[in-house]
Amino acid sequence: xxxxxxxxxxxxQAGGSLxxxxxxxxxxxxxxxxxxxxxxxxxxRETVAWISWTANTNYAExxxxxxxxxxxxAKNTVYLQMNSLRPEDTAVYYCATDSQAHRDYGIxxxxxxxxxxxxxxx
Length: 122
Description:
- This protein is mainly β and 122 residues long.
- Helix content is 0%, strand content 55%.
- The protein has strands at 3-7, 10-13, 18-25, 32-39, 46-51, 57-59, 67-72, 77-82, 91-101, 109-112, 116-121.
- Strands 2, 4, 5, 6, 9, 10 and 11 form a seven-stranded mixed β-sheet that branches. It has a four-stranded antiparallel β-sheet with strand order 1-3-8-7, with no helix packed on it.
- The protein is globular, with a radius of gyration of 13 Å.
- The mean pLDDT is 97.
């Protein structure tokens, strides 16, 4: 059984930082692409960042240079370091794991966490 549990969300002022964590069980994060996604009120869910099983990283244009995705194989956990936060980053953030191990490129999420709220005040 695959489970993902996010933590680290909260309320922060614009310009501040947060680090989200996604603890994974039932799957080895280094064998799968892992991603962070977000959904703001009345908006569709969007991809924020993902890391391939080979540790290549990809980011949405809106977060490049501000957010960093990483993983810790020993802890089987994926992180999203978010710096220089803006009010438009306010959303529920979800982590997800790919449906296929060792995918060459991209991510097709199969399992999702419950989400963690990030609110950035101006």
